[in-house]
From TrEMBL:
It comes from Azospirillum thiophilum. Pfam families: 2-Hacid_dh, 2-Hacid_dh_C. This is Glycerate dehydrogenase. It comes from the Bacteria. One of its GO terms (molecular function) is NAD binding.
Length: 319
């Protein structure tokens, strides 16, 4: 009989119904699990469910019964997948569940910054509309998305959905080729550096891997000729935090919105927290995924992944 442990069940939200897999099993769930408690809580499990709990090689070494990890997310950067493979542990993730929730969040952030909504909100609260004495207040820049260029890194489920909305807005969409490589794949798929140079908005939708860590650092911000908005709803590690802060403060970019930090939640001295008063910077607490519809889809896929693995026909395997 399988022994299933969910180590960070609270991350799903209390409104979500997680159906128990239709296989013989013992079930234990923990709201959250501190790193020091992972081995103790996972020791007896044959199947683990994790959303963001880290499973590194050292931890896996101490879990000899483990056969399957169901990640309750698309991103699997918290799990050492190569170490799992070496130990015969299968890993699955959740796919294409976020094709509405993340793109809608991206456009909420993009529109807020392009139309200076945080700045106007602050001005109205300070009485600037009355002080202006006319029907309109034109104290902050307002730019249409129509006619502007959106650069997208990552042509997967979310990147393509973002592109679809962008085209409906009348934006020109460019997909970035791999950094350091000549791009291929059609007229809208162009070299990475060209995307940096041509974008008015740049949105990141690739996974965090050794190849994408600090994808955007000082040299990349320096190449952003059109002072774009930079939007990161993927993973914090994709951007060098201090380089982003300097790019914003130095005017190399016209704004930034971030939904993920390298450590979550960010520590109180995180450089992004001191940007909180800026109206050209938005920090949201990793909620791009979090529409009720999408979180329910995550729960349903996790159950399906476990049932498929138990039936010997695994789905969504991460290799
Ligand atoms: N903020 C949030 O709440 C959420 C964040 N995410 C993040 O978004 C990422 C993308 O999600 P999906 O589009 O569903 O995944 P996906 O797997 O469908 O697409 C990822 C795409 O990135 C591409 N890619 C991989 N390495 C690359 C590189 N070095 N350069 C350029 N492209 C590269 C892949 O070929 C693939 O086309 C996830 O890995 C996760 O980190 C996903 C869901 C919610
Ligand atoms: O699905 C993902 O990768 C997320 O970040 C949400 O948990």
């Amino acid at each position: 009989m399988d022994r299933i442990a969910f180590l960070d069940h609270d991350t799903m939200g209390a409104d979500i119904a997680l159906r128990r897999p239709a296989i013989p099993h013992d079930w234990v769930q923990h709201g959250r699990t501190a790193p020091a408690d992972i081995v103790e809580r996972a020791r007896d499990a044959t199947i683990l469910i994790v959303n963001k709990v880290p499973l590194g090689a050292g931890t896996l070494d101490r879990l000899p019964d483990l056969r399957f990890v169901a990640v309750a997310a698309t991103g699997t950067d918290n799990v050492d997948v190569a170490a799992c493979r070496a130990r015969g542990i299968a890993v699955s993730n959740v796919r294409a569940y976020a094709v509405h929730t993340v793109p809608e969040h991206v456009f909420a952030l993009m529109l807020a910054l392009r139309r200076s909504l945080p700045a106007y909100r602050q001005s109205v609260a300070a009485g600037a509309w009355q002080d202006g004495g006319q029907f309109t207040l034109l104290t902050h820049p307002i730019r249409d998305l129509h006619g502007s260029t959106l650069g997208i890194v990552g042509r997967g489920a979310i990147g393509q959905a973002v592109a679809g909305i962008a085209r409906a807005f009348g934006m020109r969409v460019l997909f970035a080729g791999r950094k350091g490589e000549e791009a291929a794949g059609g007229p809208d798929h162009v070299p990475f550096d060209a995307v940096l140079a041509e974008s008015d908005v740049l949105s990141l939708h690739c996974p965090l891997t050794p190849a994408t860590r600090h994808l955007l650092g000082e040299p990349e911000f320096a190449r952003m000729a059109r002072r774009p908005l930079v939007i990161n709803t993927s993973r914090g590690g994709l951007i060098d935090d201090m380089a982003l802060v300097r790019a914003l403060e130095g005017g190399l970019i016209s704004g930034a919105a971030v939904d993920a930090t390298a450590v979550e939640p960010p520590p109180p001295d995180h450089p992004f927290l001191r940007l909180a008063g800026r109206t050209d910077f938005l920090l949201t607490p990793h909620i791009g995924w979090a529409s009720a519809e999408a979180r329910q889809a995550v729960a349903d896929q996790v159950t399906a992944c476990i049932e498929a693995f138990a039936a010997g026909r695994p789905i969504n395997l991460v290799t």
